[in-house]
Design brief:
The protein is mainly α. It folds into 2 domains: 65 residues, 2-Layer Sandwich (Erythroid Transcription Factor GATA-1, Chain A); 264 residues, Retinoid X Receptor, CATH 1.10.565.10. Helices cover 56% and strands 4% of the residues. It is built from 12 helices and 5 strands. The longest helix has 32 residues. The chain is globular and about 70 Å long. The termini are far apart. Its main location: nucleus.
Length: 371
């Protein structure tokens, strides 16, 4: 049984009552804001998420419902003394990026917030590449080429870097050289993971297609189009056959398991931790306890999502994706070596010097922020 001094909503420490119930300040602020702004939330699961301090930010629908269930009273809100009220929304291109909160965040909450920001940024990058699409609610997908894929990959590197700098433990404390090493090891694994997740969302029942990036996909039945920008289509197809096969297998796995946004964020955090350990000299660093924190938060999240009995099995399957991603990158690097000997078309896939990337992309960032 939880102590009387704990929040009735999320079980965090609490010293006083808010709106008739013993709650923590973050839950009280959440309840007040939700009521005054008349917010409508939707649960992405089965409307039975187990709300606790670790995952309270991840499902506002179930958190809001629980506020009423434990007895929080809407009539106790003093609307006239609250500066937060309904506001008219200005027309906008995209949903607002995830808001920042002054409440303490768990490691998983911080990683998830960073991933949400990255998704927002890269979707706006799609609109920057395709301004004719800004008038339509749904993204129109078409077949993509290898060249277009490389161009989008290169353009989004700055957003991956921003995510790591703002949301990844101690990344901005590393030296410039160490940041480049970690970034280069992290980038392709993370972007592949992101592509698999988006593929599950946009092509849940089409296993002959795989998302490349927002607005573009590979058609397994028309690989000639994917390689149409290359000078030797047959050679390109042959060199990347093993890599392509691996990608489609991982895509099927992610689709089957229905990996969600929070689980992707947790995996990304573990990829980062692994690259810090692999790329840097063995020495004491601020990331030593990061993996344990991510695993603890992820375990609690999965247990709340699928129940404690099914949680260990799901956790194991989710973690196995780390090995899949590493193998895919190794296969790609082998293909690159062969390609650089026989054909130069893959050289654009090699990571560039990070400082030059950030410098070259700055004008584009300014444009995107103004949209």
């Amino acid at each position: 049984m939880k102590a009387e001094a704990s929040c009735k909503v999320c079980y965090a420490d609490s010293t006083e009552k808010h709106f008739g119930v013993q709650t923590c300040r973050p839950c009280a602020a959440f309840f007040r804001r939700s009521c005054i702004q008349k917010r409508k939330y939707k649960c992405n699961q089965k409307e039975d998420c187990h709300i606790n301090q670790t995952i309270r930010i991840l499902c506002p629908a179930c958190r809001y419902k629980k506020c009423f269930e434990v007895g929080m009273r809407k009539d106790k809100i003093r609307v006239n003394f609250d500066k937060t009220g309904p506001k008219k929304r200005a027309p906008k291109l995209e949903d607002s990026p995830p808001s920042t909160s002054t409440a303490p965040q768990t490691v998983l909450e911080k990683l998830t917030a960073g991933y949400k920001t990255y998704l927002y940024d890269t979707k706006n990058l799609f609109y920057a590449f395709n301004p004719n699409q800004i008038f339509f609610k749904d993204i129109a997908f078409r077949k993509g080429t290898l060249l277009e894929f490389f161009q989008f990959e290169r353009a989004q590197q700055v957003y991956v870097y921003r995510m790591m700098e703002n949301h990844y433990s101690a990344f901005n404390q590393l030296s410039d050289d160490d940041r480049v090493k970690v970034f280069e090891g992290f980038f392709h694994q993370f972007t592949s993971l992101n592509e698999f997740y988006l593929n599950r969302l946009y092509f849940p029942d089409e296993n002959r297609k795989m998302l490349l990036n927002y607005g573009a996909y590979i058609d397994l039945d028309d690989m000639n189009y994917f390689y149409s920008s290359e000078r030797d289509t047959a050679n390109s197809t042959r060199l990347l056959t093993t890599y392509r096969t691996k990608l489609f297998k991982i895509a099927d796995k992610v689709r089957r398991v229905k990996v969600d946004e929070t689980e992707v964020a947790a995996l990304a955090g573990m990829i980062y931790w692994r690259e810090v350990k692999c790329q840097l000299d063995p020495k004491p660093d601020p990331n030593d306890n990061l993996l344990n924190q991510i695993l603890a938060d992820l375990s609690a999240y999965i247990a709340a999502r699928v129940g404690s009995q099914r949680a260990p099995q799901r956790l194991g399957v989710i973690l196995s994706l780390l090995r899949d991603l590493k193998e895919a990158v190794l296969i790609l690097r082998e293909s690159q070596v062969v390609a650089m000997i026989t054909n130069d078309y893959l050289q654009g896939a090699s990571p560039q010097d990070l400082s030059s990337i950030v410098k070259e992309e700055e004008p584009e960032i300014t444009v995107l922020e103004e949209l």
